[in-house]
Amino acid sequence: MQLTGKQKRFLRSKAHHLNPIFQVGKDGVNENMVKQVAEALEKRELIKVSILQNCLEEKEDVAEALAEGTDAYVVQIIGNTIVLYKESTENKEITLP
């Protein structure tokens, strides 16, 4: 399943007020980070990840690696910030239009 434009717009509006809770640095994306992001997505459903300037990977590659590793959707990549969404099984708060 892919997110529709309407759903992405809705999630972007929800994510606007969030602060990034993870930072990707020069080490890039590793197994531990993927596990932590997955746990955060289960609790919050919608998170922001910021990419530091010393990150050697492209931001699209970082977003793809996190999305694949956590089974989440990339809602938006804006500047050096990635917005990820994954429907929670236990803490469902966001209802998509």
Automatic annotation (TrEMBL):
Keywords: RNA-binding. InterPro entries: RNA-binding_CRM (IPR001890), RNA-binding_domain (IPR051925), RNA-binding_YhbY (IPR017924), YhbY-like_sf (IPR035920). GO terms for molecular function: RNA binding. Pfam families: CRS1_YhbY. Residues 1-97 form the CRM domain. Signal peptide: none annotated. It comes from the Bacteria. SMART domains: CRS1_YhbY. This is Ribosome assembly RNA-binding protein YhbY.
